[in-house]
Design goal:
heterodimer; A: alpha/beta; TIM Barrel; seven-stranded parallel beta sheet; B: three-stranded antiparallel beta sheet; 9 helices
C-alpha cells in the first residue's frame, strides 16, 4: 500500500496486514530549492510517523521529485537526499517517475504535474548515465514508473514498450509497472492493454501499482479514486505469472477516497492483490 | 539544448492555458520565443490541438489549488462564486515556484490581502475568515516543525487571537459544512483564541452562546 495521510491510524492498527509500506519521502521534508543551504528541512511530525512505522513494517520509497527526464537538470542533491532517507529506513527499493516536472538550469520552470517526454533516442541517451548514477548512489534497486499520458506525441522514435525495454536492459534498473496507468492510457488512446503488456519485458518488473480512476472531461483519469477496477485486476492476473522478479503489489489511493474505502475497503484491496499475486510472488520483499 | 526548450515550452503551455490556446489557434508563431527544432514545434502544435492538453491544464490547476484549499477551505467556500476568476488573475503571471507546490497558499493569501487592502475586492466576511485560517495554519505549521520532546506543557500551548467582526458562531459552521453563511450578520467585536493542544485546534472566546 502507498501511504497517504488518511492512513496514519490504519498503519498503526493494521501493520500486520502489510508486507511493506510504500511512502512518498518528499512528504517528509521541505525542499527550499537548489540555491538554498540547507536545501532540505525535515518535517519532524512526518519523520516521527515514518520512524514509528518502520519499526513494524518495511518501507520502500516512491519519490515524486527527481524529474529524471528534465533535459537540463540532473538533481544530484535530490538523489543524495533520497540516499540519506534510504539509509535511515533501510528501504528495500526506491522508485520515481519516468517524467519531468521541472525545467531550466535553476529549476525555474515548474509544470505542477509530471509530464512525459517523447520516446526518442535523445531521451534514452540522457537517461542511461543518470539511472546508473542514481542506482549507484542509492545502493538499492531503483525502479522507474511507466507514465500516464493524456496526449501523444507524433513521430516518436520508439514505442513506449521499446523505450522501457531498452532503458531497463541497458541500465539494469527495474520497472515499476503501474497497471492503472496502462489501463488509463489504453482507454484514452484506444489500444489493447494486454497487447502492450505482452510487448514489455516483464522480467524487469519488480513492483506493480494498482489504483482506481475517474471520468473527467471525456477522459479516464489516474485520480486514484476508490478501489481498483476489475480491468486493472485482470491486468495483474496477466502480469503476475509472467513477472518472475515481482516483489510487491502496491495499492494506491488518494486520501480523499478514504471515506469511500475505509478500513474494510483497503483490506479488501490488499486481499485481492494477494489472491492474484501471492502464488508467483517471492515470499519476501527482500531479494 | 533543444529538448530543454521543448520541455520549458510544454511546461508553460501546461501552467498557462492561454499559451496552449494560442498555439492551438495560431500554430507555431506563439512558440517563437523557444529555440525549437521543426519536429519539436510540430509536436507542440499537435499536443496543443489534442483534447488531452486541456485536461493537463486542468489537472495542473487542480494540483496548484490543492495546497490552497488544504490551508484555506473556509475561505475557498466563502469565495466560491468568484474563486475561478480570482485564481485566473493570480496565476496569469504567477508560476509554481517548486515541484512541491509549496508557497501556493501564501501567494493566494497575499493576493487576497492585497485585493482587500487596495479595495479591489470586498466581501463583508472575507478578512476575518482569512485571518482565522491563516492563524490556524501558522499554529499547525509550528506543530509540524516541532521536534519530539519539544512539545509545550499543558497550559503553555501556542495560540493566536483573531478578532472577528461578525459572530463566528453564526459565520463558521455553515462554511465548515461547505455552505455560504447568511448575508447581513450583525457586526460586533468577537475576539477568538485559537489554541493548538496536541494535534487539535481549540477555538474559544468569551462571547455568550459560543
Amino acid at each position: 500500500m502507498l501511504f497517504n495521510p488518511a492512513l496514519a491510524d490504519f498503519v498503526h492498527t493494521h501493520s500486520a496486514s502489510l508486507d511493506y509500506l510504500a511512502v512518498i519521502p518528499d512528504r517528509s521534508w521541505v525542499d527550499h530549492g537548489p540555491a538554498a543551504s540547507p536545501r532540505f528541512d525535515d518535517l519532524p511530525e512526518s519523520v516521527r510517523l515514518f520512524e514509528q512505522t518502520a519499526l513494524r513494517v518495511p518501507l520502500v520509497m516512491h519519490s515524486i521529485g527527481m524529474s529524471i527526464c528534465s533535459a537540463d537538470i540532473f538533481d544530484a542533491a535530490y538523489v543524495d537526499q533520497l540516499a540519506r532517507w534510504r539509509g535511515l529506513y533501510q528501504c528495500a527499493w526506491a522508485s520515481d517517475h519516468l517524467s519531468f516536472s521541472r525545467s531550466g538550469a535553476g529549476h525555474e520552470s515548474n509544470a505542477a504535474m509530471a509530464l512525459p517526454s517523447p520516446y526518442d533516442r535523445e531521451l534514452l541517451d540522457l537517461l542511461i548515465p543518470r539511472v546508473d548514477a542514481v542506482q549507484q548512489r542509492l545502493g538499492c534497486p531503483f525502479l522507474l514508473e511507466n507514465n500516464v499520458y493524456y496526449f501523444t506525441y507524433p513521430d516518436q522514435e520508439m514505442t513506449e514498450a521499446e523505450f522501457l525495454n531498452e532503458l531497463t536492459a541497458r541500465t539494469g534498473c527495474s520497472l515499476l509497472l503501474d497497471l492503472h496507468n496502462v489501463h488509463t492510457n489504453a482507454l484514452n488512446h484506444g489500444f489493447d492493454p494486454i497487447e502492450f503488456l505482452g510487448s514489455l519485458d516483464l522480467s524487469r518488473v519488480l513492483e506493480v501499482h494498482v489504483a482506481g480512476g475517474s471520468a473527467m472531461m471525456g477522459f479516464h483519469t489516474d485520480s486514484h479514486t476508490g478501489p481498483a477496477p476489475d480491468a486493472v485486476w485482470d491486468l495483474l492476473r496477466f502480469v503476475a505469472p509472467r513477472a518472475p522478479a515481482l516483489r510487491g503489489v502496491t495499492f494506491e489511493f488518494h486520501e480523499s477516497s478514504w471515506p469511500l474505502l475505509r478500513t474494510a475497503g483497503v483490506l479488501g484491496q490488499l486481499d485481492r492483490a494477494r489472491s492474484i499475486a501471492a502464488q508467483p510472488l517471492h515470499s519476501s520483499i527482500w531479494p | 539544448m533543444a529538448l530543454s526548450e521543448f520541455q520549458r515550452a510544454l511546461s508553460e503551455m501546461t501552467v498557462a492555458p492561454s499559451l496552449a490556446a494560442r498555439v492551438r489557434a495560431e500554430g507555431e508563431p506563439p512558440l517563437a520565443a523557444y529555440d525549437l527544432t521543426a519536429r519539436e514545434r510540430a509536436r507542440l502544435v499537435a499536443v496543443a490541438q489534442h483534447p488531452g492538453m486541456d485536461l493537463n491544464c486542468t489537472l495542473a490547476r487542480g494540483n496548484r489549488f490543492g495546497p490552497i484549499v488544504d490551508v484555506l477551505p473556509l475561505t475557498c467556500t466563502l469565495l466560491k462564486p468568484w474563486l475561478r476568476e480570482l485564481l485566473n488573475e493570480l496565476w496569469q503571471n504567477k508560476r509554481p515556484e517548486n515541484y512541491q507546490l509549496s508557497g501556493e497558499e501564501h501567494a493566494f493569501v497575499a493576493f487576497l490581502q492585497g485585493k482587500l487592502a487596495g479595495g479591489e475586492f470586498s466581501h463583508p466576511y472575507l478578512a476575518e475568515v482569512l485571518e482565522y485560517e491563516t492563524a490556524s495554519w501558522a499554529l499547525v505549521q509550528s506543530l509540524r516543525h516541532t521536534a519530539e520532546g519539544d512539545e509545550p506543557p499543558p497550559g503553555a500551548e501556542p495560540f493566536r487571537v483573531v478578532l472577528f467582526t461578525h459572530d463566528p458562531a453564526a459565520l463558521l459552521p455553515p462554511l465548515e459544512a461547505g455552505a455560504l453563511p447568511p448575508d447581513g450578520l450583525p457586526g460586533g467585536r468577537y475576539p477568538v483564541r485559537v489554541t493548538l493542544r496536541g494535534d487539535t485546534l481549540v477555538v474559544e472566546h468569551e462571547t455568550p452562546g459560543w
